[in-house]
Amino acid sequence: MNAPDPVSHSAAVVERHDPALWREGLRTGVPSLFGIGAWGLVVGIAMVKTGLTALQATGMTLLVFAGSAQLASLPLILAHAPIWVIFATALVVNLRFVIFSALLAPHFTHLPWRQRLLYGYIAGDLTVAMFLQRFPTAAPVPGKLSYLKGLVFPNWAAWQIGSLTGIFLGSAIPTEWGLGFAGTLAILCITVPLVVNRPALCGVLVAGPVAVLANGFPYKLGLLAAVFAGMLAAMTAESILEKRKARHG
């Protein structure tokens, strides 16, 4: 996806609340809210069942707001891995948000940095994709921010409600019920639908065996190795396929 053309500050519009676009953003995002809440629920359960206290889990879900990075960090925290390993793992898992920020930034350069920071924090994968489908270019259009608010705030609320409910249930349900496996199941439910093309499949086929073979690495570094190996394999496969397509038309 190409980044939108940047917009100069002189071309920026004065933001006013647009109820119609806010409702449009809400209607667009509503179908995904149940899935977001369910994903937050299993992450909340997983946080508690892997050793965090309810207070720690609540603080993590409110501050981090990144389910995949949270799940990737949990085993490292439990293994008392160095802080740089935990941050590096979360950074790798969340690298896609650098791209999301680059795509959203040209639309909102006229906003104060505090607002941009807030919207960057509550932006999610689906909400960014939905916004860019509605506004593919950075042309100044009144009501863009209202549309974004209609997407991201309900999305954030659905996640937090699901996650906090999961934390409560995880604290109340006995450990012998085996809900600690919920996080792994949630990751599988998200990963499988993302394998939509050959490069993605190649990345999964490489990352899986690497994760198993590197399971004995200290500080769970095998997870980080699997992520890098999978990314490298997917990028290599995509490059090869593009070159082949260019040769054969």
UniProtKB/TrEMBL annotation:
What InterPro entries does this protein's entry cite? Brnchd-chn_aa_trnsp_permease
Kindly list the residue ranges recorded as spanning the membrane.
Answer: 29-48, 60-78, 84-105, 117-136, 156-173, 185-207, 219-241
- UniProt keywords, alphabetically: Cell membrane, Membrane, Transmembrane, Transmembrane helix, Transport
One Pfam short name: AzlC
Q: Cell division: present as a keyword of the record? A: no
- GO terms for cellular component: plasma membrane
From its record, what is one biological process in GO terms?
A: L-valine transmembrane transport
Q: Does the keyword Cell membrane apply?
A: yes
Locations listed in the record: Cell membrane
**Annotated membrane topology:** Multi-pass membrane protein
The entry's family comment says:
Belongs to the AzlC family.
Q: What is the protein's name according to its record?
A: AzlC family ABC transporter permease
Q: Which organism is it from?
A: Massilia litorea
